[in-house]
Amino acid sequence: MKKVPVRVDGRDLILTNLDKVLYPEVGFTKAEVIDYYTRVAPVLLPHLRGRPLTVKRYPNGVTGPFFFEKNAPEHTPGWIRTVNLPAPGSTKNRESIDFAVVDDLPTLVFYANLAALELHVPQWRVGDDGRALPPDTLVFDLDPGAPATIVECCRVALVLRELLDEEGLTALPKTSGSKGLQLYAGWDCREEPSAYAKRLAQLLEKRHPREIVSVMAKAARPGKVFIDWSQNNPAKTTVAPYSLRAREQPTVSTPLLWEEVEHCERPQELVFTAQDALDRVEKHGDLFRRA
What we know:
Organism: Nonomuraea pusilla
Pfam families: LigD_Prim-Pol
Domain DNA ligase D polymerase: 29-288
InterPro entries: LigD_pol_dom, MtLigD_Pol-like, NHEJ_LigD
Protein name: Bifunctional non-homologous end joining protein LigD
Strand content: 15-25%
Oligomer: single chain
């Protein structure tokens, strides 16, 4: 195993297997994954900071086995911030988990070197004392049931945006980096977020029964867009803005302009790779930055 020592913002790291191809279809290597996360860090880190991290690791690339990892690895450097939080329903019967918190570039590079391609975070942060704070984000995950695509998700997003606007909430759109779309809004804790999101999803299903479904049952979803409100459960996570996805190509969960949502006619229009995402940041800055 070839090891390369590097110093990142004052922290010493050892990078390994930089030439390993993690996206075989396009020859995208671990070095390129690390490079992407390093370059996108200025806009990515604000969305990770303070949020307990869950990753999907692909040590042998996107065509090989993967695993979710919540607990910080045993070899995690001491300078990486960790927080110990309760873990109800843990598959490993743990009462609590030591989550890493990606507050800085060295931590981000550490995880990129672990082939942690996908970065997932909850809709809440932890305080300086490591305790969970109230949720600050509301999320709706729009998932198309074939033959529906992200084009249909865009139509539903526009209806959902209007409803959220009526509720006094400003929605921001991003691709999931896979096949769907996600809307985020700042959350003021007016009520329990999952119950609130479910109520809105059910309301839109009632208004648009041919296009929208609010239940998870796959039998109800062909040709419709499932508004997944359950991502607001404190125990759940959603892929972070600017995170890579483990698809055939290194696609990215990419913030969008509303104009792009309004005018989308083909799914390919909203597929963005790592380089596309970087180009968009250079042109638009962080479209997910809240005013």
